[in-house]
Amino acid sequence: MGFWSNLFGGSEKKGPQRGSHHNRLAWIGWDMHNHILPGIDDGSQSIDQSMELIRGLQELGIHRSVSTPHVMAGVHDNTPESIAGAHSCLMTALKSQGIDFRLDFSAEYMIDDQLDHWIENDNLCLLAEKYVLIEMSYLSESKGLFSIIKSIQDKGYQPILAHPERYNYYHNNFKIFEDIKNAGCMLQLNLLSISKYYGENVKTAALTLIRSGMYDFVGTDMHHARHLEALKQVVVKYDVQDLLKDNPIRNISLYSDKVRNIA
Ligand SMILES: [Fe+2]
Question: How many angstroms does the Cα of residue 246 sit away from the middle of ligand 1?
Fold first, then answer.
């Protein structure tokens, strides 16, 4: 260590660094959308892969995660029990390796016929005990979107629509996002959407929603190492916190917010 490093205690190693992805996402607190639980959807396929993704999140400054495996009838037939099982396996691995990482679990629900059933029977894997993360197919709109939003609210929970910018069939219908917000559904941005990772049109839609201040949450939606590497590049290239400064991003207070509609 040189003279100047000694004088300043090597402080240049702490905090965000120009050109480095380290700690660039510390400000979000919780990653509330990812697929890092092992072996139960199209995300991580093993404990080792999960650990690699968690190390990546830690480098980005994220030390808290609500992992959200897909629940999709006939494709990813997860239940609260199957998700809890994968979570338990990963928690055991974290503990055995002495890794300090807060890991909670929920789900990402595809809007399909089965979801009506889960809501009706109050068998949802809630996010932070009050939110329900929902998604639609990328190919076609779910006609039941607005009735599902209402059903979730009627149970006293708060719906969050995952990555609205990725639904190509809405790209020429921006008013639909206002309708969804006016129906009381929150919106979650995928961080990779602000780059061209999912394509130019998705980026344009994300930036339009950002400019309109319509996002409530951000998530990595990380499935695998390619997502992690892309995310590292995105956070170096863009000042994400500044980009989102006019959006009421509430990840940091995920476990302290009160839900509307609950008495
Ligand atoms: Fe996802």
Answer: 24
Q: How far is the CA of 182 from the centre of ligand 1 (A)?
A: 23
Residue 79 tokens, joined = 């239940």
Residue 2 scores a pLDDT above 80: no
Confidence of residue 256 (pLDDT cuts 50, 70, 90): confident
In a domain, 38, yes or no: yes
Sequence-ordered list of residues with C-beta below 8 angstroms from that of 1, at least 6 positions apart, any chain: 10
Q: How many distinct structural domains can be found in the chain?
A: 1
Q: Please, which pLDDT band fits residue 259 given cuts at 50, 70 and 90? A: low
- Determine contact, residues 204/236, Cβ cutoff 8 Å: no
Q: What CATH number has the domain bearing residue 215?
A: 3.20.20.140
122 inside domain: yes
Of 110, 242, 114, nearest in space to 163 by CA: 110
Give residue 19's pLDDT band: very low, low, confident or very high (50, 70, 90): confident
Specify if 15 maps to a domain. no
CA of 99 to the centre of ligand 1 (A): 24
Query: Quick check: 258 pLDDT over 90?
Result: no
Distance 63 CA to ligand 1 centre (A): 19
Give the number of other CB atoms < 10 A from CB of residue 142. Answer: 17
> Mean pLDDT over residues 112-134, rounded?
96
Sign of CA dihedral 229, 62, 162, 245: negative
The model carries a pTM of: 0.91
Domain membership of residue 75 as a residue range: 20-253
